[in-house]
Design a protein that fits this description.
Shape: globular
Largest sheet: 7 strands, antiparallel
Low-confidence stretches: 132-136
Oligomer: single chain
Order of helices and strands: EEEEHEEEEEEEEE
């Protein structure tokens, strides 16, 4: 069974595309403040199985439900990956006042624009931007249509060679 790594709130859409294979340590984007974000940070989570949607969040899920779907990604942060950060913010399974936080937020006031590196070997499953283009009326839909992730990426872990 595969695990799926998710990095969100990137400054720009990821520099790798769906279908590409990435290696641990490969530059994949930049720390940003896009989507539902209160400051520059990198949201980092790992699902135990493929999510039903690349944009679905865990709103309304119980703590046990979130714990059943995700693993603590802290062990994937080694040797400066996914980035070299000076401060770690929200922790795994922390209550943020409205939802159980399924990942960790790695941040510092000065992290905007820092490079983000892939902490694993794997195949990019989704690489997306802040908003969707609505063909009717030619309007840009706000970021809550992608659950507030902003610019984000999902990578399926290469379980045969995760690069850890």
């Amino acid at each position: 069974m595969s695990r799926y790594l998710h990095l969100a709130h990137l400054q720009h859409p990821p520099i790798v595309k769906a279908g590409e294979y990435v290696n641990r340590g490969q530059h994949i984007g930049y720390v940003g403040n896009t989507g539902n974000s209160k400051g520059a940070h990198l949201h980092f989570e790992i699902r135990k199985q493929k999510p039903p949607s690349w944009t679905k969040y865990v709103n309304g899920y119980s703590k046990n439900s979130v714990k059943d779907l995700y693993i603590d990604p802290t062990t994937f942060i080694k040797d400066g990956f996914p980035a070299d950060f000076t401060y770690t913010g929200s922790r795994f399974l922390q209550w943020d006042g409205s939802v159980w936080h399924p990942g960790i937020d790695i941040n510092s006031p000065d992290d905007e624009g820092k490079r983000v590196y892939s902490p694993i070997n794997g195949r990019v499953q989704f690489s997306g931007g802040v908003s969707l283009w609505k063909k009717v009326g030619r309007k840009i839909l706000p970021s809550f249509f992608n659950s507030g992730w902003g610019n984000h990426i999902w990578i399926e872990v290469d379980e045969a060679n995760p690069g850890l």
